[in-house]
Predict the 3D structure of the following.
Amino acid sequence: MASPKLKAMTDLPVAAGLPDARPHVLYVAWGYPPSRGAGMYRALATANGFAREGWRVTVLTATRETFERLNGTDPEAETSIHPDIKVVRIPFDPDRGEGDLAKWSRLRIFSPLLWNGLRWLRALAGFPEVAYGSWRRPLAAAAQSIHEADPVSLVVGTANPNVDFVPGDHLYRRFGVPYVMDHRDAWHLNVYTGKRVGSRRSRSNRLERRMLDHAIEAWFVNAPIRDWHAQNHPERANRFHVVANGFDPAFLDRSKIEKRTRPADLTVGYLGTIYGPIPLRETLEGWRLARQRSSVLASASLVFRGRLGHFAEPDPEAAALLDEFRDDRVIYAGPVSKTQVSAVYSEFDLLLLIISRSRYVTSGKVFEYAATGLPIAALHDPISAATSVLDGYPSLFAADEVSAEAFAHAIVAASEFAATMTNHEILAAQEWAQHLARDEQLLPRITALSELIGNGVGA
Amino acid sequence: MIRSIVVIIGSRHDASQLSALAGEPSRLQQLIESSTDGVSVTLISNGLDRPIPGLAAHVNLAATQPSAIDRVLSRLGATALFRRLATFPIGRLLNSMGPVDAGRVFWRTVRGSRDAMEALAAADIAIAADMPAVRTAWKALRAQRVTEAYYDHRATSLGITFGIPTARN
């Protein structure tokens, strides 16, 4: 529901030749559809949320070809962009990931390491972020062009990459446009170790501090990350908000899960990125133990769906580890388009929530898992931020520590529940999870910003 | 017209490390799938022992004798120095510019093999599937032995995640 002020503005007739009175948000996201990266869904939902609430939305992102080169694409996700959103795509580091050897310089052939090192040094001179710093100038120039053609009322940048904050900073300093910093991760907090990244006096720490000083709001995905930033910037803490991730109802047809016909053999599933910090080996060893201990699992399969690592090239270590457990009916069935997740979940009888140990890591999949209503074996350290998200979930079977033994115990308990669960129980769990929908997290902030901009903040 | 593609894998890694279980479709796969008249794929490798059905030919250089330059460099201790330098970042940077860099060694091996040079000359397109193969593919392009050359690490999935059709239905 749009705020009253904004509603009044959007109700104004837009006569031919008259400027559109609705506020204009410039949303900056490197990873926007058709990017296949995990952060893309938050970007997609946020921009769509602003459009639905009556804002004029321009998204500034990278060209489609960038994602084909670097991290893979999910073309179907592009069809989910709100039709009123204007998408401005600018090239990102065309040399990186270039496969055509006719375009490689002699220096790159002579020593790819030297060539890459020199490029990184040049990029760092522009912005203190390895691999993305070179995007600073094109982003600032594009943002200024957009603003000059159609004045921007608010900039929202979503990171990482942190260079996405540049347009907000640039338009604020040049034209006084307010901006929001949306941290999907954290710039100077290592969310896995809990330690500060770099020295407090480093160039990038100072830059973030300056940006936070002037941001109208900063968003964080969970309370522990927000609190860490509030401790470090106490004078700005009242502008820091939690905008948690959530599941996207548009991509998750829960009726498919509820009405599915359960086969005789259980299919245990994991859907998400499979990468280094998750306790994959403990999970696989726990799975092996669980199969030895429970007759329910004797003919069950464990199916992994998702990307192997964060890059286009699959992570060979994760692949080798999965392969090692092939004889235990462990199957890797490849990545899944977001538009296919309902079909994939409908094939699973219970889910393994495998996430890394950190009080700062929630993981995006916890919301989607809960939304399915399926039993969840939570295979992670209880310290994880995901623990509080699932607190109260009706069919949760959580391990009390990270070990093959504890994981086996949780898998057996969840499997035995899954073998007899009813559709009624699935529905009840789905209902419980309703508050975890992404819009429930985003709407309060969009509404608040509508009020602020409607009241002329930053004008 | 049937297009001829030569895939080059220059590293001496265990074959299992060169497998991609899934991911984006490779340039090689796209070329195969977009070809109306079919493709002929030849492989030049440095010891890949995985069976790959559908290959027109496989030139395996694992047993090829090192070039005279490489024998001399080895006697002078360059290979030992290379191993030592490979243990730290600046050393690896120096290695990448030196004469025993894997790409340079592999190119000299290819140049010394008549079968490999004939495979390059017969191809329309060269695809380097790993970094050590890049110099060879680039040299083939510069010498106009091939008309197109690409670096495509996903092509290491050759024979694992996709087959090689010889003609389209």
Notes: Strands of chain B lie at 3-9, 39-45, 57-60, 125-128, 148-151.
